[in-house]
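[#protein-structures] MJ: dropping Vacuolar protein sorting-associated protein 41 homolog here for a structure pass
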Amino acid sequence: MAEAEPQEPRCNEESTDESEEDDSEEEPKLKYERLSNGVTEILQKDVASCMMVHEKFLALGTHYGKVYLLDVQGNITQKFDISPVKINQISLDESGEHMGVCSEDGKVQVFGLYTGEEFHETFDCPIKIVAVHPQFVRSHCKQFVTGGNKLFLYEKSWMNRWKPSVLHEGEGNIRNVKWRGNLIAWANNMGVKILDVIAKQRITNVPRDDINLRPDMYPCSLCWKDNLTLIIGWGNSVKICSVKERHASEMRDLPSRYVEIVSQFNTEFYISGIAPLCDQLVILSYVKEISEKTEKECCSRPRLDIIQPFPESCEEISSDALTVRRFQENECRDYCLEYSEGESLFYIISPRDVVVAKERDQDDHIEWLLEKKKYEEALMAAEISQKTMKKHKIQDIGLAYINHLMEIGEYDLAARKCQKILGKNTDLWEFEVHRFKEIGQLKAISRYLPRRDSVLKPFIYEMVLHEFLESDYEGFATLIKEWPGNLYNNAIIVQAVVDHLKKDPQNRTLLKTLAELYTYDQRYGKALEIYLTLRHKDVFQLIHKHNLFSSIRDKIVLLMEFDSEKAVDMLLDNEDKISIDKVVEELKNRPELQHVYLHKLFKRDHHKGQKYHEKQISLYAEYDRPNLLPFLRDSTHCPLEKALEICQQRNFVEETVYLLSRMGNSRSALKMIMEELYDVDKAIEFAKEQDDAELWEDLILYSIDKPPFITGLLNNIGTHVDPILLIHRIKEGMEIPNLRDSLVKILQDYNLQILLREGCKKILVADSLSLLKKMHRTQMRGVLVDEENICETCLSPILPTDASKSFSVTVFHCRHMFHKECFPELSTDSSVHFCNICSAKHRGPGSAILEMKK
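AK: finished. C-alpha cells for Vacuolar protein sorting-associated protein 41 homolog:
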C-alpha cells in the first residue's frame, strides 16, 4: 500500500511520522494534489460538507450554509448564502446552468445560475437529498426530487407552478439520491430503490446487508457508471447493479425493467465514497486502527483504492493512504467522493480539505521511474511518448541516466549511451568527454566518439589519443586505424609517437602506427621504409594504392627478401614504371633473387628478357637445375655453345645431350646417352626422335656386345629398323636376357603391321570403287541445253534460231558450252579434252567433254 501526500506543504500541526512515503517498487496509479487558492480561504473559516462536480466548474457546500462556485484550480467565481446551517447536498443538471441545494434546516432551493428561475421550499424536517433532472434546462424536463422521510417529485405544470408527488415513504429518512437519464436511485434506512421516471414504476429494491450499522454514521454511496449501471457502496459491501429490459412474455404485472446484480463483494474497510474508472472502481475507505500509544481505536488516514471487480470477489490494483487535514477528527460520514467523468478526476472531500486525484500521465510515469532510478525504462518510455510529453525531454532524461551510470561505476555503458543520447550535439559531447577525463575514463568513451557527422574539435581526439599512447599502445594503434586522419592534427600525433619511439625504438606496434600516420600525411616514402623494415604485409598494397614505384627503385632487394613472389608479380605488372634492366641491375649482387625475377619473366614471355638468356643459363645451373632443360628447350635466344660449355663443366648429361642434338652432333649425343647414362630406352627414344639411319647403325654397333642393350633394341626396333639386321649381328652363344620374349614380340609386331596394311588396303580399294561409281553416275547424267545458254567463245545463243538446221554443240560437265565450230582444234596427242575455261589444276569429273549433235 502506498502512502500518498497531496502536493501542497502542510502546516506544522499536520506533520506526522506517518506521512513519510513508502519506498514501494509498485508504481501508483493516481497522483494527488490539494485544491487550494479559494478553497484554502474557505476552509480556514468554514467546514466543507458536500461538493458537486461539473466539467466546467465545482460547487462546494459548507457547514455555515454557503455554496461556492469554483473553477478547477479552486478559485471562487460565485458565492450563494443559502442557509445559516449545513448544506447537505448539491445537484447540477448536465448543462451546468441549474442548481439544486438542500440544507439541514429543511430548506430546498432550485434556481438558475444565469437566469431568474427559482424554487424555494422549507420543510419541517432536515432535508438530506436533492437531485434535479439531468436535462432540467429543457422545458419538458423541469423536475427534481427531494425529501426527508418522504421522497417528493416536483414537476412544473403548464401554468409554471410546481406540483409535488410522493414517490416513496415509510422506510425512514432518505439519505442519498442519484438521477441518471430516466432512472432515479435513492437510499433510505432499509436499502436502495430504483425508479423509472417515465413509467413511474419502482424497478427494484436492493436491501441493506449490514443492518447493525447506523445509516446516519455510515451512509450509502451511490454512483451511476452509465445510464443502466448503478454502483452501490454501503458499509463494507459493494454491489454493481445492471438495469435490463424484461422480455414481453415475462411482464404480466411486473415492471418492464428489472435489476441484475452482476458483481458483489466486501471490502476491508468502511466505504465513504465510490466512483467508476473504466472497468475498475475507485473506493474511498474510512479506516480505524488501534493506537500503539493509547491502545484505543482511533481514526486513521482514509484510503483511496482502485479495485478490479469480479462477479463474487475483487482484486486490489492499488491502494493509497491519504493525509488530509485533521483526519484524526473525522468520521465515515465526513468524507465523500465525487468525480468528473470526462477527465477521470476524483475529488476527496473532508471537512477541512479537498484533495484531487487524477490518473497519472506519461510525464508522471517517467518521473516515478526517475525517482526509482529506473533510467533505462524512463528513456524508453520517453522515446515512445515524446510527442505527448510536457514536463520531460529525452535528452534531459538521457543525461540523468549517464550521470547515474557514472556514479555507480558503469563507465562503459555510460559511454555507449552517449552515442544515442548526445546525438549530434557537439557541445554536450565535449562536455561529457571532459567529465570522462576528470575521472580517468577516456578509454571508455573513445570507441563512441563521432567520426563522420558532427565531429568534435581536434583537441578532443588528440586528448584521447595521448591517453592511449601513455598506457595502451595496442589501443592507440586501433584508434589510429579506425579514426579518419582528418579528426586530429596529424603532425602533433606523429611527434608524440616519435618521442615514444626514442624510448622504445624497436616497438613494432608504434612503428606500424607511425607508418599509418605517415600514410595519412601523404609521406609515403617514410611509411614505406617502416613497412619494409617491419616486413609488413600491407607494403604492396601501399605501393599500388599510392603509386610509389618511384620510391621503391632502390628498395627492390628489400621487397624481394620480404616476399619474392609478390614482389616479382608487382614488378612485372609495372614494367613501364620500373624497367626490367633496372630490376636486374638492382639484383646483381643477389643472383638467387635475380634468378627468381628472370625465371618469372621468362615464364610470362620467352622473348622479353632475351638479352639475359645467356646469364640465365648459369643462374638455372646454380639455383634451379630442374628448370634448366625446359629453359633450353623453350629459349630461342640462348647461345648454345655457352650453354654446352656450362653443362659440360657441371656434368649435366641430359642438358648436354639435348644441346649436342640441337647443335647437330647427334652421334656424340647418342654416345653420351649410352656411355654416361647407360640408358638403352633413352638411347632408342633419342634415335626415334632423330630418325637417322646412321644413328640406328651406331646404336646397333654399340649394343651388339651388351646383352641388356640387345634386349631393349629387340623390343623397340621393329617399327623403325629391320630386326634381321640386328639378329644377324648377334654372336653365337651370347646370352641375351628374355630373348624368346623379344623374338615373339618382333613376330607379333610384324603380324600386326601385316594386318594393318591389309586393312588399309581393303579400305582404300573400297573407297576408290565407291568414288569411281559416283563419278560414273555423275557423268552419265544428261545436261539441259536451252535458249538461255550461250557459247562461251562467241557468246551467242547455243541453240540456232532455226531449229530445222543441223548443228553441233560441245558440252562439258562443268556446264560450259561451245559451238563445234567455235571450239579450238582438238590435240591429236590426247583423246581426253578439257574445258578451256576451267583451270587445268582443278580438273575434275565436271570437265569431261560431252558432244551433242543433231
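MJ: nice. Residues 273-358 form one domain.
AK: one more thing. Confidence is low (pLDDT under 50) at residues 8-23.
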